[in-house]
Amino acid sequence: MSIVKVKVGEVILGDGVIKVQSMTKTPTSDVSGVLAEIEELKKEGCEIVRVGIPSEKEVYNFKKIVEKSTLPVVADIHFNYEIAIKAMEYGAQKIRINPGNLGGEEKFKKVLEVAKYYDVPVRIGVNAGSISLDILERNNYNFAEAMVESALKWVRFAEREKFYNIVVSVKHSDVHETVKAYRLLSGVIPYPLHVGITEAGPPPEGIYKSVIGIGSLLIDGIGDTIRVSLTGSSVEEVRVAYQILESLGLRLRHIQIISCPMCARKRVDVEKLVNEFRDKIRRSNLENIPLKVAIMGCEVNGPGEARQADIGIAPGLKYSLLFKKGKIIKKVPNDKAIDFLIEEIKKWKN
């Protein structure tokens, strides 16, 4: 995790809690549509939202979005440094720029001056398409090393300008290149890292790439905020991001199901039980409890193997063992096991 802390609105990056963000996919010209998308993202748990400003005529629409957004808004800008400046004047709580396509150091310097004046953090985002040819050639077209050199070039420039309100990303569509780049970068700068696999593709392929890439880095302790980039719903991006965090035990927000894969030892249809459980917790509004719940298939995979679960059931021939933290608390009929499990979860909630 980073040493420097950066504030995006009221959200802090670098405080040890991985923050989840996404980017709106509604055209910025459709202000009400963007705001509706932001509300859906917020309901799913998104904490920071990025909005693209593709041209100067969209800047005023961006201003309207910032004024009414219930999430901190990041302005995403490419090529035109004047749009970045105007976005900050209009209330952007962070800007994402790629200094390599802004048109040179002087234009980047002007962006930093305004960012310093308004106390707006700047994400220096480098990807494969923005690396200068000389840096690529110097690194023999090894993209991970080239992205890191490029990012460091702009970070050091910002530091010479006495600007330290920085977030950095070095994304590639290739998982190996991305992971390698972040590992190289993480040890040499103190700033928060925005982690993700860019252009990961559609689900499910994009989900697999994101889980492997982002998950690998988070296991290494690298990353302060994540964005899953999918060709699809922004809400799905947030959902996948939390699934990654919950799988790693970094942020538990929902019930996490631990269930066996089933084998010849199974006493019951575990898949059917899991589906019944999911349906009942959904209808009972119990999904948003940070619990690990085990639904096992037999005594072998019962309280022993599921000891890490907060609560769970392990069916036998006629009766199921209901257990908490590995200790058996009840023996209940198989056909009522899910109901007993739900009742115990309700007590936990209360």
Annotation keywords:
15 strands; 2 domains; 11 helices; alpha/beta; Sulfite Reductase Hemoprotein, domain 1; 350 residues; elongated; TIM Barrel; 5-stranded mixed beta sheet; 8-stranded parallel beta sheet
Structural overview:
The mean pLDDT is about 90. By secondary structure, the protein is of the alpha/beta class. Helix 10 (about 270-285) links the parallel strand 11 and strand 12. The radius of gyration is 24 Å and the shape is elongated. It has helices spanning about 30-45, 60-70, 80-90, 105-120, 135-140, 145-160, 175-185, 205-220, 235-245, 270-285, 335-350; strands at about 5-10, 10-15, 20-25, 50, 75, 95, 120-125, 165-170, 195, 225, 255-260, 290-295, 310-315, 320-325, 325-335. The chain folds into two domains: about 5-245, TIM Barrel, CATH 3.20.20.20; about 255-350, Sulfite Reductase Hemoprotein, domain 1, CATH 3.30.413. It has eleven helices and 15 strands. Helix content is about 40%, strand content about 20%.
